[in-house]
Amino acid sequence: MKTTRKNPLPLWLLGVRVWAGAFLALSVLEYYQSTHQQGHSGRIEWRAVALLAGAVAGLVVMIVERIRAEPTPEERAVFWAIFHSPPGTIGAVVVTRNGKPEVIATVRSTEEYLKLAGSGQLPPDHRVFLPEDIV
């Protein structure tokens, strides 16, 4: 069973925390290098440390953002229906039966959906999934 936090940490706050942790770790590493490595100038390049910490924080935030963008069961059903439909299919109509999403129709255009909805063939509790730039 998958558990999720009720209120996930905002990405900006996660980024700040990861940046601070990475900055601290990289500072310790750079300090060690400056005191123990021969030929090192002995100065810590704070701008480089901050830039590397920012890169680490950016990567972590991007990965967490991708993980959080997991599709809902309805969206998964729609994706499956669109990918397994003939070319030109851009959307799907979904209803929930017995707690599971079920695709009852796929559409090739907004006009096709409007015609289908106007015909009275769709149940009142249906949801339509179309690309955002069309709706």
Summarize the structure.
By secondary structure, the chain is of the alpha+beta class.
Structure description:
- The chain has 135 residues and is of the alpha+beta class.
- Helices cover 51% and strands 13% of the residues.
- It has a three-stranded antiparallel β-sheet.
- The relative contact order is 0.10.
Largest sheet: 3 strands, antiparallel
What is the string of SSEs from the N terminus onward? HHHEEHE
Give the overall silhouette.
rod-shaped
Low-confidence stretches: none
Largest sheet, spatial ordering of strands: 2-1-3
How many angstroms separate the termini? 35 Å
Backbone CA Rg: 25 Å
Strand content is: 5-15%
Assign the structural class, choosing from mainly alpha, mainly beta, alpha/beta, alpha+beta, or little secondary structure.
alpha+beta
Annotation, overall tally of beta strands: 3
List the total number of helices: 4
Q: What's the helical proportion of residues?
A: 40-55%
Mean pLDDT, all residues:
88
